[in-house]
Write a structure and sequence with these properties.
28% helix, globular
């Protein structure tokens, strides 16, 4: 059973599913590329790790907690109550940094180890202020000043997209293909929730035939193998929510397919 949406399924953006979707998509891209790239290359699944102190990754402390003893009367002023509670000790929660591991792909020359192409599937932490975005922006800058091609896949509607110069249409999702020899120009594939994910050629060395990457087909396969059709309740709205006009379109689509009552 394929996803009911013609392109990206917005229900897969839910944090409940996204971490698994990201992992499966990275693996699926690696497997399909291995079958379609020349033998002088290999696809490596790499990872970067950073220490996050983002507010969404922390166990947040409880401020301004006051514990009143049985002897504290309503007439006692707040300074007396706070002094009493502090002397007895208060159990609070303190923020703990979290080790974050992010996986990405590199196409390398077997003989030299040179990274020909770096492929990133963005995660929510890449698109929110904090250490996750800082870590990715640093890696992105290093790639963009190197001889390595960059393929950046953004299948998340929420958060702040990666910076692009100039005027371009704002879309729900986007894929950026930055070839080293044409920078600062890059190819942008923007698409909405109502459109299929565009297929695009994956850059290699100049003399090589570029394989075509069909993310739509890969996501349909993931949707089936992971049996998301059993886990997703299409009677609920997706997280994050759709724009009002897209919510109406989605409701009609799901009802036509018998997935919403």
């Amino acid at each position: 059973m394929n996803s009911p949406f013609p392109g990206m399924n917005p229900y897969l953006e839910n944090p409940v599913f996204w971490s698994e979707v990201h992992h499966r998509l990275i693996t699926a891209i690696a497997d399909t590329l291995e079958e379609n790239i020349p033998p002088q290359y290999r696809v490596a699944i790499e990872q970067r790790t950073y220490l996050s102190d983002d507010s969404d990754s922390l166990l947040v402390g409880i401020p301004n907690v006051t514990v009143f003893s049985q002897q504290t009367s309503p007439q006692q002023d707040s300074s007396t109550a706070i002094q009493t509670s502090t002397s007895e000790g208060i159990t609070v929660m303190i923020p703990l940094p979290e080790h974050i591991t992010v996986k990405y792909l590199e196409i390398r020359e077997v003989s030299t180890g040179f990274v020909v192409t770096s492929i990133e599937v963005l995660s929510p932490k890449n698109k929110r202020p904090g250490e996750g975005r800082k870590a990715y922006e640093l890696k992105r800058k290093k790639v963009l000043v190197s001889l390595t091609h960059l393929v950046e896949i953004d299948l998340l509607r929420s958060g702040k997209p990666m910076p692009i110069l100039g005027e371009f249409p704002v879309t729900d999702y986007q894929i950026i293909v930055s070839k080293s020899e044409t920078r600062p120009q890059a190819k942008l594939y923007g698409f909405s929730i109502r459109e299929p994910i565009p297929v695009f050629p994956l850059p290699l060395q100049t003399e090589d035939t570029e394989p075509i990457l069909d993310l739509q087909s890969l996501l349909h396969g993931i949707y089936n193998r992971a049996r998301y059709y059993l886990a997703i309740d299409y009677n609920q709205e997706p997280v994050p929510p759709l724009k009002p006009e897209d919510a109406v379109w989605s409701d009609t689509l799901l009802r036509e397919q018998g997935l919403r009552i």
